[in-house]
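Lab notebook, bench 4. Still working through the backlog of constructs that have no structural model yet. Next entry is a single chain of 98 residues. Request: give me the structure tokens for it.
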Amino acid sequence: MCGAPKQGGALAGIDLSTQTVIQGSVWHEGAPVAGAYVRLLDGTDEFTAEVVTSPEGEFRFFAAPGEWKLRALAPGGKGQRVIEAEVGLNETTVVLDA
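Model written out:
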């Protein structure tokens, strides 16, 4: 059983002056992808965490500042995005290739 928190929703109560939040959505063919698996990999490609996107295709990770790779996988395809995260809110989109 996955212990991942529910994805999406507001960041109420989160101190963005001290937290590094990586959040975004997964898209394929112009639409958000619900139920996609999104992995967070560190700068050496080591697995750090995995979540499943919300019904709106949203995901969120709490991480340390630095370079991170996001890999998404769903029945419609797979996608990847590299992000340089800083303290605060870091938003991105991962687009799936067919």
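Notes after review: The domain at 20-92 is CATH 2.60.40.10 (Immunoglobulin-like). The chain is about 0% helix and 55% strand. Flag for follow-up if needed.
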